[in-house]
Amino acid sequence: MAVKITSVAKQLPKYTRHTKDILPYVELWLEGQEDRFKRKVLKIFENAAVDKRYSIMDAEDVFLKTSFEEKNDIYITESIKLAEASLTKALNKANLKSTDIDYIITVSCTGIMIPSLDAYLINSLKMKQDIVRLPVTEMGCAAGVSGIIYAKNFLKANPNKRAAVIAVESPTATFQLDDYSMVNIVSAAIFGDGCASVILSSYEDEVGPEIKDEAMYHFYDADHMMGFKLRNTGLQMVLDQTVPQTIADHFPKIIHPFLEQNNLTIEEIDHLVFHPGGKKIVQTVEDLFGALGKNIDDTKEVLKLYGNMSSATVLYVLERFMDKNLPRGDKGIMLSFGPGFSAQRILLEW
Question: Chalcone/stilbene synthase N-terminal domain: from which residue to which, for each copy (predicted)?
Answer without folding.
Answer: 36-202
